[in-house]
Amino acid sequence: MARNTESNLYTILFTTGMVVIVGALLAFLASSLKGKITENKRIEKQQNILYAMGVNENDETSVKFVSKDKVASEFSTYITKQLIITGTDVVEDDMAYLIDLKKETAAAKNENYQRRLPLFMGMKDNIQYYIIPVRGKGLWDAIWGYVAVDNQLVVQGVFFDHAGETPGLGSNIKERFFMDDFKGEHFLDGDLFKGISVSKGNSDPKNLDKTDFEVDAIAGSTITGDGLAAMLRKDLKMYLPYLKTLKQ
Amino acid sequence: MEHLELFFKAIFIDNMVFATFLGMCSYLAVSKKVSTAVGLGVAVIFVMAITVPLNWLLDTYILKDGALAWLGPEYAVYDLSFLSFIMFIATIATMVQLVEIIVEKFSPSLYNSLGIFLPLIAVNCAILGGSLFMQSREIQTVGLALNYGISSGIGWFLAILAIAAIREKIRYSNVPAPLRGLGITFIITGLMAIGFMSFGGMLTGGEEEVAKETETVQIEAVKEAIDIANNEKEIHE
Amino acid sequence: MGLLSKKDLKLITDPLADNNPITIQVLGICSALAITAELKASIVMSVAVLFVMGLGNLTISLMRNIIPSKIRIIAQLIVVATLVIIVDLVLKAFAYELSKTLSVFVGLIITNCIIMGRFEAFALANGPLRSFIDGIGNALGYALILIIVGFFRELLGSGSLLGFKVLGDSIEKTGVYAYGYENNGFMLLAPMALITVGIIIWVQRSRNEALIEDN
Lengths: 248, 237, 215
Known about the structure:
The complex is a heterotrimer of chains A (248), B (237) and C (215).
Chain A: H1 8-52, H2 68-78, E1 79-86, E2 89-92, H3 101-107, E3 116-124, E4 127-137, E5 142-149, E6 155-162, H4 176-179, E7 188-189, E8 192-193, E9 197-199, E10 214-216, H5 222-247
Parallel strand pairs in A: 9-10
Antiparallel strand pairs in A: 1-2, 1-3, 3-4, 4-5, 5-6, 7-8
Chain B: H1 2-13, H2 24-29, H3 34-63, H4 84-106, H5 108-114, H6 118-122, H7 125-136, H8 142-170, H9 182-197, H10 204-236
Helix pairs in contact in B: 1-8, 3-4, 3-7, 3-8, 4-5, 4-7, 7-8
Chain C: H1 6-16, H2 29-34, H3 39-63, H4 72-94, H5 96-110, H6 113-123, H7 128-158, H8 190-207
């Protein structure tokens, strides 16, 4: 090779070339795939919301969502109303499920900002469900989910997901054995808000007692579990004023 | 207080080596002697103290969703977060080589003791881990980011110092031949990590107390809000 | 194997045992500890690393004559990161389900020093075909350890394999649990991964005395 790959000029040219090529390639890919990715994310949100209220194709043990091609029609069938709660103001909005909770939380740090809370109302087999989106922090990254309650404010189903919890440990929050435990749990003691904690005590591993405000934790994922309980406490509480009006 | 809490948390509770198991490769490979371990440890603290705040600035003003808003409102729609991995890594690798060049130029003696470790650091996943944790834990200010960088570095330094000291001692022990060297180091690290788990309870206890207090306050607030909501309902009806 | 010479074949077989990236070269430890609580995660990670190592080694080897040595580390890191991000973006657009499973591993792959280590040690000095084979071989050696560790941690820690409860139900007390066996939850914690790898090293070195270190 006649070229001198050690000269400063070559190094600078090489770096510039590499940055331009890599940058252009990534930017091109990201922008050209953006439409598809957003669409996939939208479908996923609808699937998750439906999953929480029990519209899914679950078999014995695994999580199965409504299939992609059916999700749009099922979503409009089962989700009857989408609300945005801002303070004491409640408006209906069909795009409420696209509200980005991450952005809302960030914006709410500004005291003048009145946080928008999306709430979805679903109807299945003549039972009214209220589906509350929640978002919080696990061990490594964000965790989020949807909690479906009936008009007695008893949890009827949940869906959790995460961005990067430890595979095999914290990532199990999206597994059936964990999510199913939440069915029937209460988070109110009379009028008192208790939340649902993820407990290691293991006094009730079969989860028969539904009014103990706790579910059984996953071994080896304490921080994810604590984060999940904190997320439920924090986000369910924001909806309480509105939810309690439903119960009366 | 916030600074102090983050500082101790990063060193003991979220120790890079024992809690998150990052930076293991160089930790295991360069811990045969205390003196080299100290050199590498200092270099890690140094590089983390530079890269974590730098990446914080990058993340806050360029990469985050809507971070470009300071250029004008029309730029607020851009979300460059898909670039964060590559930007963080590029920053780290660039900083490592810059530091190497500067130290070599101005302080040859420091370069002689530190220099050979610098290229090793670019591939140390604890450094990238530090920047990624900074991002995912939403550290608020550049000061806290600096603090986090330094304290995570110190945590890593302590870990490699401890294992190097143990390895120097263990040379005089009668370890089964196949376990000598790497094998016993793995097992000792495992035991040390179990020890470090006991720090896990250190700061959590306090948090629970605080949480209970705010809970009662907030329940009062909720009750008020319900009253307001109910009144409104009546008015509407 | 007409396609591969004996020397090339050695590139695949060596990393499986006597020059294993985890137990001998001390590379890629972080991920070996982080994700082996479950056999399934170990397998997914192994496949992802196999892919990135093969392609990455090939790319670096093709570029080896034009990369200035001063900035070779940056160049290598950028190649890995770009590869991983491209794969992540494409999967997100065309195979969303799969990308959900893999997204957790993206960060772990980029920071995996086994990839950088092989770039530095092999791909920078060898031709594309040999580098590709070396990448595959090392990824397989890595996969072997990951799967062994994952197997024992899941079996002893949760009493299951790939999610199937092979030892019976621990809550209903069926299978071996009926005789008083309990899962060892400690196996799921990361320190036990370290100790498991330590034991693998012990077994390997007692079978092959040439690998024993002096102290």
